[in-house]
Amino acid sequence: MRGAVLLDSAQCVRLEPDTERGVRVSRVDWDPATLDDWRHQVNPLGLARQRVWEALALASKVAAQPEIIAELCWSDDPSYVTGYVASPLIGYARITHLKPLGSPMGGRVFFIRTGANSEELIYRLEQQVTLVNRLPDSNKGV
């Protein structure tokens, strides 16, 4: 599977039309000034890396959708063991050592509200152009 699982959070039923393809979040980027501000804020933490800002942009687009309750993501890169959970309530929280070093396992799950229109959600996640142009007022997570 290449994309994310779209999971009805109450019924534990997959809702993406093609379970081999999944849902592919795309067409998202940072406003350059906002990215510079974010990098300046997180640089002391050692997090101002492209892998992190790309993940944060994707997670921001996902969490901004009203149908989304939360997202869980971890890389299938065997050399990268960090993942994250993100939601409108908690923001973006990195999870270090989510898997053993060398493991090719990875994936992404979007937990959505029961009764949500999954076709509209998929369209927005895959086709709607999104620009991350502001940082949160509160520090919900990095």
From TrEMBL:
Named cofactor requirement(s): Mg(2+)
UniProt keywords, alphabetically: ATP-binding, Biotin biosynthesis, Ligase, Magnesium, Nucleotide-binding
Reactions the enzyme catalyzes: heptanedioate + ATP + CoA = 6-carboxyhexanoyl-CoA + AMP + diphosphate
Pathway(s) served: Metabolic intermediate metabolism; pimeloyl-CoA biosynthesis; pimeloyl-CoA from pimelate: step 1/1
InterPro entries: BioW
GO terms of molecular function: 6-carboxyhexanoate-CoA ligase activity; ATP binding
EC number(s) on file: 6.2.1.14
Keyword Repeat assigned: no
UniProt record, GO biological process: biotin biosynthetic process
Assembly with partners or alone: Homodimer.
Protein's recorded name: 6-carboxyhexanoate--CoA ligase
Organism whose genome encodes this protein: Sulfoacidibacillus thermotolerans
Lineage summary: Bacteria, Bacillati, Bacillota, Bacilli, Bacillales
